[in-house]
Amino acid sequence: MSKRIVLVGAGHAHLHILKNIGALVRLGAEVTVVAQDDFWYSGMATGMLGGLFPPEADHVNVSALVNGTGATLHRGTMIALDRSAREVVLEGGRRIGADLLSLNLGSVPPPLPGMGQSVYAVKPVRSLVELRQRIEEYWRGADTDPLRVAVVGGGVTGIEIAANLRALSDRHGHCMDITVYSRSEPLRRIPRGAAAALLRHLRTANIDVRWPVAVTSIKECGVLLDGGTPQDCDIIINATGLMPPDLTARLGLPVDGDGALIVDRFLRSAGDTSVFAVGDCVAFDGRSLPRAGVYAVRQAPILFANLAAALSGTPPIPFVPQRRFLAIIGLGHRSAVMIRGPVWFKGPPALWLKRWIDQRFVDGYRPGSKTTHHSALNQMSP
Ligand SMILES: Cc1cc2nc3c(=O)[nH]c(=O)nc-3n(C[C@H](O)[C@H](O)[C@H](O)COP(=O)(O)OP(=O)(O)OC[C@H]3O[C@@H](n4cnc5c(N)ncnc54)[C@H](O)[C@@H]3O)c2cc1C
Q1: What stretch or stretches form a coiled coil here (predicted)?
Q2: What does the pLDDT average to over 274-283?
């Protein structure tokens, strides 16, 4: 009897599997993909927000990868796992039988208390597409007041988002008041010189970075800061870090303190070797790797090999995470900062390199492309 493989999530880690899904079918598997959305590439997300690319450049059509391969695509959301029946349960009640399951559920920022309709999370990336559309729509309207934007979170993502919002407002010739709120010293996880250069860039771009200031809740017309000070704003961006979605902790599989699925060296759940999990939603071999696409992308070929090994009954191979990776933080259309370990550089060549690497990566998944580049996504996680 053929084995049923179910892949949930069309993220950075599953993209390579989707491109090669026909090979699993040819090995005799009945393969089903559950995808909420198409693939959105986070490496180009801030550049897309800043107007460097149109949204469609940051996007890969999942149907185009799956159609015609013999695998089945379900557009939907997984809400539970029935482990005794070996079934994935989707929103709406549909159940899909799985002998082997692979979970690529990604991550989202922890919700801000009192979240309202004007809060945009930095993930899923689609919400940044909606943010750009909302801003551009406002500028097309009659209102000429400058938009007031609060970016909550002073990590790499919050800073990169703020710089690219300025790039967007410059590109359109509109004013925008941008404030970044950081609970602790901003950019404390990168080399001090690089952090100082980024903060100088923000100051020159007239972006206010306030710290130590915690946003304690979201109000109808702005944010409430610690000490109870209200701050009016039109748009709030949640860039407070990335956590696995709530679902991971509800699957009945071992998770760490963040709710990340604990997997072994072969990317299999510590509680069930027929369940694989990859990317931001896992704690790898008892420790948490940075939530960076770099790891998700590099896990992909190992996952593929191990799914094939599980089908053929051969031994799996281990994933060995790299210790360091190149991070390139885009600052709009002119410059970027690249960092590897303690070494960093700021200037237009860094942006040129980032664009080349990122374009090569997404092009590898366009219909008709024969090559893929696992090391392409190269930046730092927030
Ligand atoms: C603005 C921003 C920029 C970033 N830039 C970089 C960068 O340049 N380089 C880098 O290395 N990292 C970057 N990161 C981090 C990077 O986004 C993540 O590490 C990466 O997305 C992780 O990939 P993944 O495969 O785990 O998940 P994702 O690519 O997020 O995919 C998760 C998938 O799971 C699906 N899903 C979730 N829940 C369900 C469900 N219940 N049912 C069905 N499907 C579900 C989602 O729809 C999504 O398709 C950035 C992050 C942000 C926020």
Answers
A1: none
A2: 98
